[in-house]
Structure formats: structure tokens, C-alpha cells
């Protein structure tokens, strides 16, 4: 497999291979939390932190535990256990240090554990056979891309609260329309950075 520069992986994972706008992974919390910019920013930071660190931890576990012990059949379970443990630690820290944000995120904070974007990044990292630095950069870029997408949607939805929309497109429908338009805009950059 050709060696891809970490810089290309970083920018591609933010823009052209965005987890939300290219792969449509993590849509549940993306659509639910994006009604308020401040809350969306908090969830975006949490997802970025979880994506960055769990991708790197899962890379290390894959290469130093799963492959040497030949237990690839347990890899999904192990990845989910790592993600769940990390999210639990993050949840306790947020409850302690940012109780307002913790209360606003509600059920969506522990649901980061089952956010398909988190597991998807780990699985893409394994399938693409990234090295340690590539995996770390891919996790960080994917988190920043997810954060960028949810912040953009939240900002637009806050502005639309003051606008009069036709009844047929208010609510979830306008969120899907905005997401589709943002996805088309991000695909416009596909000639610059691409990862397969």
C-alpha cells in the first residue's frame, strides 16, 4: 500500500473525506445536537478528543495485542471497549469540570460510545493500514471535520430560527437540505486531497 503523507490524511479527513459529509457516519448526534451552537461546539470538542485518542490507542492495541495474539475475531469488541472506557472517563471529567455543558449534552455524551463515526475511523485506519502517526493524524482530522460540520449546521440553524420557513421544510427537513448542500460544497475540494 502506498505511503500517504500525514498532511494529506489530515486535510482530506477534514474536508474531502469528512465523516459526516462524505461517509454520513455519526448523523444521529449531528442532527440532534446541532440546534444550538454552544452545545454543538461542546459535543464537537468531545468527539474530536475521543476520535483522536481512541484511534491511536486502537492502533496500538491492534498492532501490539490483536495481531500478535491472532485474535482478529475479537477486534470489534476490543475497539468498542476502548471507546466505551475512554468516553466514560470523558463523561466523568465533564460532569466534574463543565456541569452546564454536561447537562446540555444529556444522553448524547454517553452515546459517543456508539457513534458510528468513532468506530468507523478505527476500522478505516485498520483497513487502510495506517502507521502510528497516520492514525493519530487521521483521528484528529476526522474529529475536526466532524466538529466543523456540526458547528456549521448549528450556526445556520440558529440563523434560521429568525427566518420564516415554509411548513414543509422546517424542522428536520431543512437540516437534511443544509447537510446536502454542505456535502456538495466539500466534494468540490475532492481534487485537492483524496484518501481511499
Order of helices and strands: HHHHHHHH
Strand content: under 5%
- Report the sheet with the most strands, covering strand number, pairing sense and barrel closure: none
Query: How many angstroms does the end-to-end distance come to?
Result: 11 Å
Structural class: mainly alpha
Tell me the radius of gyration: 17 Å
Tally of strands:
0
Q: How many DSSP helices?
A: 8
Shape: globular
- Mean pLDDT rating: 88
Helix content: 55-70%
What does this structure look like?
It is a single chain. With 196 residues, this protein is mainly alpha-helical. It has one domain (6-187). Helix content is 69%, strand content 0%. It has helices spanning 6-14, 27-33, 37-69, 75-97, 99-105, 116-127, 132-160, 172-187. Helix 1 packs parallel to helix 7 (132-160), helix 3 crosses helix 6 and helix 7 packs across helix 8 (172-187). The mean pLDDT is 88.
SSE order and pairing:
Blueprint: H1 6-14, H2 27-33, H3 37-69, H4 75-97, H5 99-105, H6 116-127, H7 132-160, H8 172-187
Features:
196 residues, mainly alpha, 8 helices, 69% helix, globular
Concise summary:
The protein has 196 residues and is mainly alpha-helical. The chain has one domain (6-187).
Amino acid at each position: 500500500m502506498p505511503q500517504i503523507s500525514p498532511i494529506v490524511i489530515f486535510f482530506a479527513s477534514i474536508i474531502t473525506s469528512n465523516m459526516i459529509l462524505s461517509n454520513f457516519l455519526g448523523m444521529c448526534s449531528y442532527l440532534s445536537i446541532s440546534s444550538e451552537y454552544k452545545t454543538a461546539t461542546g459535543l464537537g470538542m468531545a468527539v474530536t478528543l475521543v476520535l483522536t485518542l481512541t484511534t491511536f490507542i486502537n492502533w496500538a492495541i491492534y498492532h501490539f495485542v490483536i495481531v500478535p495474539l491472532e485474535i482478529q475475531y475479537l477486534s470489534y469488541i476490543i475497539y468498542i471497549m476502548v471507546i466505551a472506557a475512554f468516553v466514560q472517563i470523558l463523561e466523568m471529567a465533564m460532569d466534574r469540570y463543565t456541569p452546564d455543558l454536561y447537562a446540555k449534552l444529556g444522553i448524547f455524551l454517553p452515546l459517543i460510545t456508539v457513534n458510528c463515526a468513532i468506530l468507523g475511523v478505527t476500522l478505516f485506519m485498520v483497513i487502510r493500514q495506517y502507521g502510528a502517526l497516520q492514525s493519530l493524524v487521521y483521528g484528529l482530522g476526522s474529529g475536526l471535520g466532524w466538529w466543523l460540520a456540526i458547528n456549521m449546521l448549528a450556526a445556520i440553524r440558529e440563523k434560521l430560527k429568525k427566518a420564516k420557513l415554509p411548513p414543509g421544510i422546517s424542522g428536520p427537513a431543512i437540516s437534511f437540505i443544509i447537510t446536502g448542500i454542505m456535502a456538495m460544497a466539500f466534494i468540490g475540494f475532492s481534487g485537492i486531497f483524496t484518501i481511499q
